[in-house]
Design a protein that fits this description.
Blueprint lengths: L1 E8 L9 E4 L10 E11 L1 H7 L2 E10 L4 E8 L11 E4 L12 E5 L3 E3 L6 H5 L2 H14 L12 E5 L4 H12 L3 E5 L3 H10 L3 E3 L5 H7 L5 E6 L3 H11 E9 L18 E4 L4 H5 L5 H15 L7 E4 L5 H13 L5 E5 L2
Parallel strand pairs: 9-10, 9-12, 10-11, 12-13, 13-14, 15-16
Antiparallel strand pairs: 1-2, 1-4, 3-5, 3-7, 3-16, 5-6, 6-8
Helix pairs in contact: 3-4, 3-9
C-alpha cells in the first residue's frame, strides 16, 4: 500500500523528514479492530511534535497521522458496531501506526459513523479536535452540555485553531458566554463566525484584553496554546471555584499554589488517554463521535475544515507540518486521496 512515513526524526525542511513509501497492507483485522481504507486525513500539532528532531532511528517505517475518514474494508471477530462498507471517521491510537496510508487498523471503540451530510475531507477535519474539545469541556471541566451551566464564562486561549474552533461551537451549544483569543483579523473573524461572544488578543496582552471586555475573572478557561506562557495569567483570571484545562504540555514547573486560595482546579486533557491505557470506558469515544455526527447532520455543528492541501503524499504533508509549526493555521488542514 502507499503510505507516508519516516525512519529518522528530522526538521520538516529536510527532504527526508517524511517520505513516500510502499509498505505492506495491514493484516486481516482481529478482535475489535477494523481495517479502514483511508479516503482523507487531517494534520494536527501532535504530528509535528512526534516528528520533531531527535536521535532515534526507526528500524521499521513509522506512519504518523491521527485524523481520518474512510470506509470499513473488513472487521475483526469481536466487532459489533460496524460492518464492511460503513463510512467512518476517527482519530486513532497514538501507540499504533497512523492514518497517513491507504489502509489502517483501528479499534472500533474509538471510531464513529461518518456524518452523512459531509464528504470525506470535511469529516476528516473533525475527530481529534472534536474528541479533545468535548472531553476538555464536559469531562475535565465538568460543564453540563445540556445548559445547566448556561451564562457562565469560558475563556478559550487559541480560538481559531482546530480544537478552539470546535470548542467555541460546543460551548455555545451549552449556553456558555465564550471569550476567544485571536490576534489576526482573519482569525478574529473566524472565531466570531463560529459564535464567540468576545474575541480578544492573546500573548502578553491577554490579561488586560479580557478585563477591557468587562471581565475581572472568568469561570472556566480552556488553554489550547502554550501552557508555559499563559499559566500565571490564567491563574489570575480564573474565578473562585472555577477551573482550568490545558492540552499543551508544560516545559517547566508551575506554582499550582496560586489556585489554592480560590479552590480552583487545573486539569489536563489528552484525547489518547483512553486508547493508550485501554480504559474500561474506551467506547465513550465512539459514543461521543456518534453524537458529534448527529449534531453535524442536524446543522447544529459545522466542520472546522480550514484548507485543503491536495492529495496525500510526502510533499503535501511536509507543507502541512511546516504551516502548523508556524502557528498561524485557521481551522484544520486536510489532504484527500492518494
Amino acid at each position: 500500500m502507499r503510505a507516508v512515513a519516516l525512519t529518522q526524526y528530522l526538521p520538516i525542511s529536510h527532504p527526508e523528514s517524511l517520505l513516500d513509501m510502499e509498505l505492506p497492507r495491514p493484516a486481516q483485522p482481529s478482535g475489535h479492530d477494523l481495517l479502514v481504507r483511508i479516503e482523507a486525513i487531517a494534520v494536527n500539532p501532535v504530528d509535528f511534535k512526534i516528528r520533531a528532531p531527535k536521535d532515534t532511528v526507526e528500524a521499521n517505517p513509522k506512519i504518523l497521522g491521527w485524523d481520518a475518514a474512510g470506509v470499513v474494508e473488513a472487521v475483526g471477530e469481536a466487532v459489533t458496531l460496524f460492518q464492511p462498507g460503513d463510512k467512518v471517521y476517527y482519530a486513532g491510537d497514538i501507540t499504533r501506526q497512523g492514518s497517513n496510508a491507504e489502509y489502517q487498523l483501528v479499534d472500533e471503540r474509538i471510531v464513529g459513523p461518518m456524518p452523512t451530510t459531509l464528504d470525506y475531507s470535511a469529516a476528516a477535519a473533525l475527530p481529534l479536535t472534536a474528541i479533545t474539545a468535548w472531553e476538555a469541556l464536559f469531562e475535565r471541566l465538568r460543564l453540563d452540555r445540556h445548559g445547566r451551566d448556561a451564562g457562565k464564562t469560558l475563556l478559550i486561549v487559541g480560538g481559531a485553531g482546530g480544537v478552539g474552533s470546535i470548542a467555541i461551537q460546543l460551548a455555545k451549544l451549552a449556553g456558555l458566554k465564550v471569550i476567544a483569543t485571536a490576534s489576526r483579523p482573519e482569525s478574529r473573524a473566524w472565531c466570531q463566525t463560529l459564535g464567540a461572544d468576545h474575541v480578544v488578543r492573546h500573548g502578553s496582552e491577554l490579561l488586560d484584553a479580557v478585563r477591557a471586555e468587562g471581565f475581572a475573572q472568568v469561570d472556566y478557561i480552556f488553554c489550547t496554546s502554550d501552557t508555559d506562557a499563559y499559566f500565571d495569567t490564567l491563574a489570575e483570571l480564573v474565578a473562585p471555584q472555577g477551573g482550568i484545562v490545558s492540552i499543551v504540555e508544560a516545559g517547566k514547573p508551575h506554582d499550582i499554589e496560586k489556585l489554592k486560595a480560590k479552590s480552583a482546579f487545573f486539569a489536563w486533557e489528552m484525547m489518547f488517554t483512553r486508547s493508550l491505557f485501554q480504559t474500561a470506558d474506551m467506547v465513550e469515544q465512539h459514543r461521543l463521535l456518534v453524537e458529534v455526527a448527529r449534531l453535524i447532520d442536524s446543522g447544529t455543528l459545522k466542520t472546522t475544515l480550514g484548507e485543503k492541501l491536495g492529495s496525500i503524499n510526502a510533499a503535501n504533508l511536509r507543507r502541512a507540518h511546516a504551516l502548523l509549526e508556524e502557528g498561524k493555521v485557521i481551522g484544520k488542514l486536510v489532504l484527500t486521496g492518494f
